[in-house]
Amino acid sequence: MAGSGRAHLRPEDETLLRVEHLNVEFPVGGGRVVYAVSGISFDIAKGETLGLVGESGCGKSTTGRAILQLPRPTSGSVVLNGVDLMELDGEGMREKRTDLQMIFQDPISSLNPRRTVGEVVAEPLQVWGPHDEDKQWDIVADMLEAVGIDPGVARYKRPHEFSGGQCQRISIARALVLEPELIICDEPVSALDVSVQAQILNLLEDLKAEYGLTLVFIAHDLAVVKNISDRVAVMYLGKMCEISETDEMYANPAHPYTQLLLESIPEPDPLAVLDDRAEIEGELPSPLAPPSGCRFRTRCPYADETCARVEPQMRRVSEDHYVACHHPLVPVDETEVQIDV
Amino acid sequence: MSERATGTAGNEPFLVVEDLKTHFTVPAGTVKAVDGVSLELRRGQTLGIVGESGSGKTVLSRSIMRLNIGGNVHTTGSVRYDGRELIGLKAKEMQSIWGLEMAMVFQDPMTSLNPVVKVGRQLTEHLRFHLNVSKSEARQTAIELLRSVKIPEPETRIDNYPHEMSGGMRQRVCIAIALACGPRVLFADEPTTALDVTVQHQILNLLATQQKERFMSMIMVTHDLGVVAGRADEIIVMYAGKVVEKAPTATLFAEMKHPYTEALLRSIPKIAQPKHSRLSAILGRPPDLINPPPGCSFAPRCPYAQQRCHEEKPVLSPGSTPGHQFACHFPVGTPEAREAFDRNLAAGLPVTLAAAGDSKVSDDDLVTSAGGA
C-alpha cells in the first residue's frame, strides 16, 4: 500500500477524470503534518461508478473532497475532461463546480431546515440559470419526480417534514439539477436503515442508467460498495492498496488488507463459519507518522523486511486488476513493474 | 450452532419476560414503544433482537434492565429474574442487580464513558461498590480485565482518559466495565454500529469468547441480521414494538415465515451477489406508534397484505418447527401467501411491485394509494 505508481491508469482519452499523485496534507500545529492522502492515482471512465472503501481515517472522504478542490490538495493533478482543476483560479473553479456535485452522509443536516424543498433544489439554478422562476420550477419538478418525490406535495414543505430516506432523495435531486458530469457520494446510505438503504441504492442505479451519471461512491460497507460499483479502490492510511473491477476483486482479492476486510464482514448466513483467524490485530497507525515502506506492514501477517524498506508499486494482476503489495495473494505480472518518481 | 443449542437444552430459563409493555406519555398521545413482548433466556444462551430504528428493540432491552427512567414511562407486564419480579422494584433495589447480575454495553463508546474520569476509576467504581474490595485489589482486577479484553499495555492504559483511546479501544473498555462484576446476562445494544468493519469483527469475537469463558447469557440488539446470524442461538424480529417472528437462528434463516423478516433480509446487499444486483427495498416507513394501524402493523408495507391484514391483528402463534413462532395471516412460503402476492401484483399495489423488483415505484405511490383506498 499501499503504494504508489500509475500502472493501473487507463489511456487518457478513455477517462472522464484522472487523478495523479494526489497529496493532501493538513498542518496540525507544532510543525506536525497529517498525511491524509499520499500520492494516490486513479481514473474514472464516463458512466462508471468507482467505489472507494477503507476504514475510517484512511483518507477516502478527503480524496472525494480533493477532487472538488475542497480544500485544494497539497500537490498532484486532478484532470476533468482535459482541464486540470488544480490550475484553475477561484472563478474558474467556481464555474467548473457545476460539473461536480456532492451528496453527503447525513441527509437531514445537509438540507437547510428553513428553506422549502422547492427552494433547496432550485438554489443551484438561482446561481446558474435559467433565472425565470417558471422554467426553474419545471426543471426542479422533473428532478423531484425522477428521484421519487411528488413535486406538487413537496414544493412548499420543509426538510423536517420528510424522513431520512426522502431527505436523501431531495439531496440527490439538488445534486442532479445542474446535470453534473461527476457526483461524489460520501457515505450516502450509512445513516439510513437497511430497508431505506436499498431504496436509495436502487435509485442511484436507475438515475445512473437514465442520466449517464459518473459516480464516486465512498463507503465503509463492502457489500454496499460491491452492489453499486463498476470498479473498487481500497484505501489504507492515505494510500491505495488495490484497484480492480468489482466482481474480480471480491472473488480474488490480491492485497492482504482487502482479504482481511472481506473476511471481517458479518454475513447474514447462520451457517457461515466464524473465523477467528480473520481478525486484524491492532489498529490504524497515526497518519502523523505513517510507517515506512508499505503502510499496512504493521498489521500485515505477511510483512517482512522488504515491506519496511521499499514502498510497493502498483502491479498488474489481470485485466483491470492492480495491486500494490510485495506479497500479493494472487500472482502478478512481474514484468510490468514501473518505477515512477 | 447445534452444539451451542444442545448446550442450553437442559437448563431452565432464568430470565422470563411476559407481556412486557413500555409506553411513553408525550403531548401527542401514548407512544407504545414496546407492546406486549415475551421472551425467555437460558444460561449461556445468546438471544438476538433484530429490527429497524424505531422498532422498540432498544427500549425493550432497557425495560428489562429497568433503565427507562422518567415520569412519563409506564412499564407493565412481568420480568422475572431467578423467580424475582423486577417490575415495580425501586432504583435502589435494582442496584443489587445492575452490574452484578445484568450489565449493558451501549452503542456509542464515544459518549458512554465519562470524559473527565480516567478509565481505571470508571472500571473500579462498581467493583469497589459491589464486591467491597480494597483500592489496590480493585486496580489489579481492573488491569486483568483490560488484559482480558485485549487492550495492550493495560498497566499504562488504566491511567488514560477516554479521549486518549480509539473508538474500538473505548468499546473494549465498556465491555470490561460491563464484565467487571461477572454478570450472568450481558445486554449488548448495537455494540458495533459505531465501529469500522475490522474493529466490529474484533469486538464481536471478543464478546463471543468472553461469553464462552464465563458461561454468560447475552442479549444482542442490532439492526444488522449479519451480526447475529452466526452468533445468536435464537433471534427475535421486532416491528413496531411487537415480536413478529421468533425462532432458533438456523430455522429463522431456513424457513422464515414473516414477510417483514423476509423483506429485511432481501434488502441487505450481500457480498455473494454480483455487482449491480437489484435489491428489494421495503417501501414506506415504520408506523406511527401513537396510533398504530388497526390490523397488522406491517400490513401497509407488506407485499402479501390482504383486507384481513388491515383489519385483524395477527397473534404470535407456533409454527411447525419447535420454538418457531410468528404473527402473520399469510406466512411466507404457504400457498395462501403466494396467492395473495399474485393478487396484489395483478392489482398493481406499489409495495408488491417494489418487492417484485420494480424500481419505478416509490414512497409517494404508497401515500397516493393509501389515500385512495
Write structural notes for this entry:
The complex is a heterodimer of chains A (341) and B (373). With 341 residues, chain A is of the alpha/beta class. Chain A has a domain at 12-81 and 181-336: P-loop containing nucleotide triphosphate hydrolases (Rossmann fold, 3-Layer(aba) Sandwich). Chain A is built from 11 helices and 12 strands. Chain A has helices at residues 60-67, 90-96, 117-128, 133-146, 151-154, 164-176, 194-211, 222-228, 246-251, 256-264, 305-309, and strands at residues 17-29, 32-44, 49-53, 75-80, 83-84, 100-103, 182-186, 214-218, 231-236, 239-245, 315-318, 321-323. In chain A, strand 11 and strand 12 form a beta hairpin. In chain A, helix 3 (117-128) crosses helix 4 (133-146). In chain B, the strands form 2 sheets. Chain B has an 8-stranded mixed β-sheet, with helices on both faces. A 4-stranded antiparallel β-sheet of chain B has the order 2-1-4-5. Chain B is of the alpha/beta class and 373 residues long. Chain B has helices spanning 2-7, 57-64, 91-94, 119-131, 135-148, 154-157, 167-179, 197-214, 225-229, 249-254, 259-266, 307-311, 335-347, 350-355, 363-372, and strands at 15-26, 29-41, 46-50, 73-81, 84-85, 102-105, 185-189, 217-222, 234-239, 242-248, 317-318, 325-326. Chain B has 3 domains: 1-101 and 184-254, 3-Layer(aba) Sandwich (Rossmann fold); 113-182, no CATH class; 256-267 and 294-373, no CATH class. Chain B starts with a helix and ends with a helix. In chain B, 36% of the residues lie in helices and 20% in strands. In chain B, helix 5 (135-148) packs across helix 7. The interface between A and B is large, with 56 and 55 residues.
